[in-house]
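[Help] Beginner question about ligand-bound structures

Sorry if this is basic. My supervisor gave me a protein sequence and a SMILES string for zinc ion and asked me to "get the holo structure". I don't really know what that means in practice or what format the answer should be in. Inputs are pasted below exactly as I got them.
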Amino acid sequence: MSTAVSTGAVRAGVAFFGAESLNRVSFLRNDLEFVRSSLEHASTVFIPFVQGEAILSRGNELGICELKLQDEWFSLRPIVDRLLPLLNTEAARVQESGANLTFLGLKEGGDFSYKSQYRGSPYYAIDFRPSSTTLIQSKDLGPLLQAPQANRTSVLEMTNAQASLYSHARMYLDWLAKYNYCPGCGSVMYPVDAGTKMQCGNKDKNVHCNVRDARVNNVCFPRTDPVVIVAIATRDYSKICLARSKRRVHDTVLYSTIAGFMEPAETVENACSREIWEETGIKCHDINLVSTQPWPYPVNLMVGCVGLVDANGTDDKIDLTHDEELMDAQWFSTQDVVEALDKYNGTAVVQFREDITFPGKTAIAHQLIRFVCDKYKRSLASL
Ligand SMILES: [Zn+2]
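Answer (accepted):
No worries, everyone starts somewhere. Holo just means with the ligand present. The predicted complex, written as structure tokens, is below.
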């Protein structure tokens, strides 16, 4: 079985959640002097979360809250002063400190400078999880605990810049909150490298740990789970196969692309071919990478592809009996989809027919469907 790979000539725009506004300067995270000085700088921006969810901006525009150390509404200075001595120590664990802190990057502008070379406003995300035994307690958090918080609906309505910053912060904080014990020996782990890695806390050299004692990768890294998502089209793009999931049966009738988690030792192309066959019965081995999208629910990377199928009555035959994940899958006329997209006004879903919708613009599925439509229109124009 061969799988052709090519990069689509029509590129999708910047994905929602995928706009990078910061320079991550990842090589500076293990430089304690950089971390300390950036945490203490007046221009540094902190994105506050409480129990894993961001606080909303207090301004008129929908967005996430950004606080400086000496913010008028709430000063983080006393909290950061107490967290600074804990950096790279076991006491930085959220169970002891009451806060997870992670460095996001430098934003252009701002007067912070490190080694006269790296300038900008440092950005950190901080997630407060206070308890009666933590260093930072509820009483230290003033108005933060009562402030309105983001939810999935509000995040999807934010600008892409704000949603992408949220996504970046949330993925690190979600990982820091969930992964507290070493997978090698079960000891507690604690954050290092400005909250971007977790170190095994096993100090007993006689107790082997295959994480701590490894030559490389001897820390735990943040997790990203790749998901392939693929629009299936006939080779001339005149038809597109979209499917309705059983899991979303109570929602509006939504037809979308095929998606599934990648598995170990699987290429993106083979994962697409497998998911397509398992879910729809369609045999598709011509997979084209179109674009990717970080998706912070919880820590996914959507790998968006288009799969081209020969409409020969065999390869394109739909059979839902293998995986039985889908309620329905159908070949639709791409021309009909083009007309629905022409009328689309940016809402959460695209109205296709009276009783059928497609995903709206924030979803990569929408971009993939649009990609097929653009290819179809170009093929018509070249006739
Ligand atoms: Zn360990």
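A couple of things worth pointing out: The chain has two domains: 4-16+224-381, 31-200. Residues 160-178 form the longest helix (19 residues). Feel free to follow up in the thread.
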